[in-house]
Specification:
34% helix, alpha+beta, three-stranded antiparallel β-sheet, 4 helices
Amino acid sequence: MTDQPTLKTKLSRIVQAFEAKPALARSTDVTSLRMGDGLACIATQGDWSHTIDMPTTIGGTATGPTPGFFGRASVISCMAIGIKLAAARDDIEIAGIKIDIETDWDDRGLMGFEGVDAGCQATRIGIEIISPHPQDVIEALVAKALDRDPWYLSYIRALEVSMAIRVHDGTGRR
């Protein structure tokens, strides 16, 4: 477990390094996905690997959580980590964080129904924080943390996305 003073020291070192060499702060993550028969997928990045699947009701085998689980988990885990990092930098004690995210969907969009958007219809996020500090201090901390939270910002903003599609016959030839 990393205590708050240790976390603050580590963050200070990172900030100093980024101030001295801004290029150190830039990175590109590459996550790859493989899918064969069925709907189950294996996503990998470095040493990490996760199975993603769909429920049996839609044709999957339920061997892993759905893509939506990982999407929602990415947003709220990044939010919690960002809040904890901001608290450490500002010497604000946080004993615990619980975040719930609810998303509303109309699965007719996924099935290609005319005029039905497949995207998320609405999102609600609830944050509970255990801290001895008053509500206004914690609200300001959360606002500051979310203003610099990569996955939360990616979730609430439209992003430029580029895509390349390559088709081959399975033998490596086109």
